[in-house]
Amino acid sequence: MKEAAFYDKLEEKAVQCRLCSHFCRIKPGRKGICRVRENREGTLVSLVYGRVIAENVDPIEKKPIFHLKPGSLSYSIAAVGCNLKCRFCQNSQIAHSLSDSSHHDSRGLTPGRDMEPRDIVDQALAAGCASISYTYTEPTVFFELARDTARQARQEGLLNIFVTNGFMGEEAVDEAASFLDAANVDLKAFRNEFYEKYCGARLEPVQKNLIRMKKAGILVEVTTLLIPGLNDDGEELKALAGFIAEDLGTDTPWHISRFHPCYQMVDRGATPVTSLEKACNIGKKAGLDYVYMGNVPGSEYEHTCCPQCGSILVERRGYRIRNLLAPDGSCRTCGALSGIRN
Ligand code: SF4
């Protein structure tokens, strides 16, 4: 249990949380939308500090992060909870399983294993990882654990990565910039209606936070899960790709990922590969240098190619990686800088 960051005390022991763009006003004894921040007698506490529900040693490409240390390992952790309610959630068992009645175990603890920041850093070092990823659920709602871990990780030479929906509050983005090296941010669609109907959120804060992260110097990669009939309209994708190119820069990687039916969205099939190819072409036409296709092993869009001469810079076959970059991240064929932190 830890006192939460980013909140205001209001009258009659109510509080307002500013960690994410829901800005929940919470009465004593109640929790916010994420279910993992609770008002205890006028003090907002994080219920997930030091309670890790998932930990794995993953290839960094699995996050996906393609432009930081290609081919390295990332120690990946999560705590329970999420601030969004995506009907197509791929980690619903740990993100959305909480309710008031099922929240705690018999000892009154939040589900998970006791792990303090030092334990997480030690595990990452022992596993030979180059980074720690805060992932699977939403790192925003376990911000205090991620922040304290990331600060210690930096001192040990480890990099820090958020895999996030980007629906944070601005102050959280600014503080995250002091310890984050990279973020893969979901840009789930380019219509507010989609965010409201299928995710219980809004588009605008995500757009603003993407720009804020990029300006703060965080390496930003964008992911869009392409869902048949929901966000695969050509005009919408053109607008989304245009936003990435103009507001974040043409060097920003865009991962277009294949949907498979899951959780509360089983009324449609997997995304046809032709739709993914169409979306990749839209990204290229918008001027993006790095467009990737996700969840389609063997696709030519898995590789990183030099935008100048077309040579393969990083060859990927699933998680088999051949890093062909020069040590400084430039192309060995033409010498152009890729912007990849090697
Ligand atoms: S993190 Fe977001 S959802 Fe959770 S209490 Fe704070 S404002 Fe509400």
State the gist of this model.
The protein is an alpha/beta fold and 342 residues long. The chain has eight helices and 19 strands.
Report on the architecture of this protein.
The protein is of the alpha/beta class and 342 residues long. It folds into two domains: 2-46, no CATH class; 51-302, Aldolase class I (TIM Barrel), CATH 3.20.20. 24% of the residues lie in helices and 23% in strands. The protein contains eight helices and 19 strands. The protein has helices at residues 92-95, 117-126, 143-155, 170-176, 192-199, 203-215, 234-248, 273-285, and strands at residues 2-3, 7-9, 15-17, 25-26, 37-40, 43-46, 51-52, 54-59, 73-78, 113-114, 131-134, 159-164, 182-186, 219-226, 254-258, 291-294, 304-305, 312-317, 320-323. The strands form five sheets. It has an eight-stranded mixed beta sheet with strand order 8-9-11-12-13-14-15-16. It has a three-stranded antiparallel beta sheet with strand order 1-6-5, with no helix packed on it. Strands 2-3-4 form a three-stranded antiparallel beta sheet, with no helix packed on it. A hairpin with a 2-residue loop joins strand 18 and strand 19. It is globular. The chain starts with a strand and ends in a 19-residue tail after the last strand. The protein binds iron/sulfur cluster. The site of iron/sulfur cluster has 12 residues, from loops.
